[in-house]
Every structure is written in C-alpha cells, then in structure tokens.
Amino acid sequence: MGPHRLDTSIGPPLNLDAQTRLLVIAPHPDDESIATGELIQHVRAAGGAASILLLTDGDNNPWPQRWLERRLRIGAAERERWGLRRRGEVGLALGRLGLPQEAMHALGLPDMGVTRALRADLLGALRLWAMQLDVFRPNLIVFPALTDRHPDHSAAHVLTRLAVAQWQGGNPRLLSYLVHGHADDQGALVEIASSTEIHENKLAALRQHRSQMALSGRRMHRLADRPEHYREMGGARQSLPWQPSPALRPWLKLTVADHGGVRSWSWREAPLERGGEGGYLLRLPETEGPRFVKLHMDLPSPWIFDRWGWCEL
C-alpha cells in the first residue's frame, strides 16, 4: 500500500505507511476505542502495525458489575472475574478495528492504582514499559495527556515519557490524547481525517465494551463521538501551577518523578521558594530528561478524579 497522509490542524502532517508502528497506551479497557479507534483503522489501512499496551483490567469498577451481576458485595474473586471480562471486551473491540487479539499486551496494574505503582516502584514500572518498547519498537506512540483528570491516565503519561526518554531503541513521535477533563493549548494540535464508515466502525468497536455501556452508554458514546485529535508535546513550566489555600497545606504533598526516581515531601518541607510573579519554584538539581511534579493529599476520597494532578517542569 502507498503512504496514507492524514490532515492535521496545526501540527506536522501525520504520514502513515507500511513502516508505521503505532503503540497505543490505554490505561483501561475502552480507552483504546474512545481515543484511537479511528487512528488504528488508518494505520491498518496504510499497511502499518499497531499494538495496544493495556495498563489495567478496569476491575475496580463496582457499580456496573453490581448492576449486571445483580450482586451487592464485590470481593477479590468477583473483581478478578470482572477484569477478565473487560480484558476480553478489548479483544472484541480490536477485532472490529482490524487487529488480532495478540495486538493487546496487558500489564495487569491495579485499576485506580497506577499512580501508587509509580510512586512505590518507578524503576520496576519503567522496566515494564522498556520491555514493550524493545519488543514492538514503535515509531509512533499515542498516550494519555498529562492534564487528564483521571489519575491512571496522567500517571500513564508520566511513565511513558520517562520510559521513552531512557529508551535507546529509537525516537518515536509522541502524541497525547485527552479523555477526562478540558484540553489546554500546550503543544501543536494534530487532528485526523475521518469518514462516516470509519467513525461508525469505531462506535461499533466501542459497543463491544458491553460491561461499560450498560450504565454509561450515553456518556461513552459522547466521548467516542468527538473528533479524534492529539497534541504534540508542549513546553515545560518554570513554576508550579498551584497556589493552594493555607488551610489545606498541612495535608498537602508534592511528589517528583524524573530520571533520578521518585521523591516526596510535605508542602511545608518541600524545596519551594516564591518566584518573581508570585508562583512557587521547586529548587532541585538539574536532571536528564523530563521531570514531573504532582500535588496531592493522601486522604481517602469518594471522588476518583484528581484535584490538582501533575505538571511538567
């Protein structure tokens, strides 16, 4: 097949051909269809290859399971069964997108626990990414945006960027996608072309995620119905984007993840100083590659989305 060039809004053209090797980072089952269902079809139409790195099985999702299984209590065995069901749905969705089940590689990280895994064993997590990079050798990686409000998504961004920065096997193009939250204007916008047939097939792939469509079908359809677009990597910040209330500071922590590993401080003990425009600067030695900072509170909360999230310095 010949080259397949997709229209872009601002960023450089996205040229797809038989040499394209697309790696999609999907934190949960259904992210691959919502965020990249059309892009995967374009890659396959151009003769390229695609692989899906599924980070979690989406097993920490009790309300749809209670509804469909007519049960109240969800224990470890029930969660494991639900995760296997959701992983199987990814295989069905990929079939609609033209990929075999073998294109999915599941890491089995804890659902709603990717940030925790990153903080507990960053080097171990990066080894998992490195193995996938070495085996598949992608030249295009599409992964969640740093500003995505779901903590598994933003942590996936951090892990992907750090892994690629250390990888010696190539220099893949990096494009991020947003599922949860509001887009910012950091990084050039890359918007792919579509057609009615391609879009309808994407929605057909989404419908294979029956466990999620049962209670959230309208919301899922709305997310997948948006035009697919991606962002090139934007610039890093000089100062932290947060100026938290003094009332919250006794419970706040800052966590840094970079080439040197993971470090955490309470807000009061962090190496902070005021910048010229009133923002906070984090004073740390220079490092190779990207550096990411997260503001958070280690307190239980019924709310799954991040209040502050990560930023890149």
Automatic annotation (TrEMBL):
User: What is this protein's record name?
Assistant: PIG-L family deacetylase
- Organism for this UniProt entry: Dyella koreensis
Concerning InterPro entries, the annotation shows: GlcNAc_PI_deacetylase-related, LmbE-like_dom_sf
| Gene3D superfamilies, sorted | LmbE-like (3.40.50.10320)
Q: Name one Pfam family in it.
A: PIG-L
List the top taxonomic levels of the source. Answer: Bacteria, Pseudomonadati, Pseudomonadota, Gammaproteobacteria, Lysobacterales
